[in-house]
Amino acid sequence: MTGRVRFDGFEFQRFDNGRCRAAVTLEGSEGIRSVGRAEGLLTREGELRCSAEAAIEAIRGMAPNGLTFELVGIKAVRAFDATVLIVCLRTNEDDGPARRVGACLATEDPVRGAATAVLNATNRIIGNDIV
Predict the structure, then answer these.
(1) Mean pLDDT lowest among 6-20, 29-43, 66-80, 91-105
(2) Structural domains in the chain?
(3) Predicted TM-score (pTM) of this structure
């Protein structure tokens, strides 16, 4: 199978109890779809982490067997007169553990940008190996 993983849907909810929930839907080649969901704390960092975790969960549904992803961290950084979201993932690739980095400009929706940063990091790994 060839092709890239792309966003097919994104939902984010904030609740009065101080929690949030994200759902990320991804689509690969030949219409393969995967949905990832996560919950987190209703703080700026918690929202970004929740969104990133939902994206990782969706990616797990499309990754080749045995390939895992773990969120090391996500950070919003002010650079070049813009906010950039940077995500670091730990993976277990054929040659052992590795770290991957993805980034996204947080222009209109930083929470969605967190999921996009994860996708940018993982597309380099699974872009041509989607199952």
Answers:
(1) 91-105
(2) 6-126 (3.30.160.270)
(3) 0.88
